Amino acid sequence: MALRPLSLALALMAAAATAGPMTLRSDGPGYAATVAFAAAPAAHPALDAILRAEAQAALAEFKEWGGANDDPARPYSFALTDATPFVSARYVSVLRTVDFYTGGAHGNRGVQARTWDAEAGESQAGAFVGIDAFVTPPGLEALSQALRAAIAAQVHGGEIGAFWRDAVADATAPTPEALGNFTPEPGPDGRATGLAFHYAPYAVASYADGAPVIVIDRAAFAAHLTPQGAALFGR
Predict the structure, then answer these.
(1) What is the C-alpha separation between 132 and 179, in angstroms, rounded?
(2) pLDDT higher than threshold 90 for residue 24
(3) Topology of 131-233 in CATH?
């Protein structure tokens, strides 16, 4: 049964009282949609409000897409899932995975990684920050080289073929935009031990290779940290 606006509002209000991820679901004649969004820690109310608003908007968009399906025998499906792989007093990384099927031979997956800085933004109210908050331009170059080598070794069996060379070059370019889909790797002391880069299928390899996650140890870029990066990773 589809969630009506009032039902959705009540669901979101109920979610606000909890600390863990919350799930909203909407089913229609031609689709099934699930949104499992992360409830941010109590210390990050601004982030929590953003995630809840995004959950509502995502469910509404999923329902609109599903309403366009003219083949109920092959229903569309949408599943958004948030995870928080890194949480500290200042930073929260949100890893969002969207699995969807809108016809065709198989479903697809989208991956988005963002890191929230509780001390960024206007009046230090918190904001999402990019990789350049932690790594200098020479560090981006070092990460770019390390990523290409790791993708070649871990995904392509040692050498990137001609068909994928341009795609990998674009996905690992030494820019904040290209290297923006990252999450810090948690360490035992509360600091990060490296950076995990998340790629959707087809981004750097074939669909059969799935959604690669490439972890680069901090040693590869430790010489090129910003002051924020030094605090997050240590030296």
Answers:
(1) 9
(2) no
(3) Actin; Chain A, domain 4 (3.90.640)
